[in-house]
User: Which sequence fits this backbone?
């Protein structure tokens, strides 16, 4: 990272940033060009290992790509704000972001309910009840996060 003064290496701080985000962009390998897709997500730490959970339809391009190569990159960001430096007549944007790599696996039927509950916790503070009939037509994915780094830009000159 070029700007070490903006780098976040503390795991707990990166988790705090991720909890503030409402979308995770996943990049998959697709014949020379990345295939990028924004997704809703949930996260859980299991025995010290961070996992991200996603859901989608039962078929589609991203699933085909994951079956070919389950390696992925993810990115999420929040805390966006416009920063104006009137005295310099310049501006920039403030943000907090987390970027990392992982491997994706398909969640088996018997674990879907638990995984979807984890996903719902990202968006709904209390226990959220959902129609379990939809699980039959829903694919749930689990990414094992292999590495990640955070970055923050704020108002400090």
Assistant:
């Amino acid at each position: 990272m070029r700007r070490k003064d903006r780098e976040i290496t503390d795991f707990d701080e990166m988790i705090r940033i991720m909890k503030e985000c409402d979308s995770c962009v996943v990049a998959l390998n697709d014949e020379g060009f990345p295939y990028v897709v924004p997704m809703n997500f949930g996260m859980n730490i299991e025995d010290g290992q961070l996992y991200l959970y996603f859901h989608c339809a039962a078929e589609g391009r991203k699933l085909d790509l994951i079956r070919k190569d389950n390696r992925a990159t993810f990115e999420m960001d929040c805390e966006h704000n416009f920063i104006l430096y009137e005295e310099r007549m310049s501006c920039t944007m403030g943000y907090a972001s987390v970027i990392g790599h992982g491997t994706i696996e398909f969640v088996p039927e018997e674990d879907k309910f638990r995984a979807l509950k984890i996903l719902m916790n990202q968006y709904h503070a209390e226990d959220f009840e959902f129609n379990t009939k939809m699980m039959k037509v829903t694919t749930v994915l689990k990414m094992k996060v292999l590495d990640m780094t955070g970055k923050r830009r704020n108002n400090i000159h």
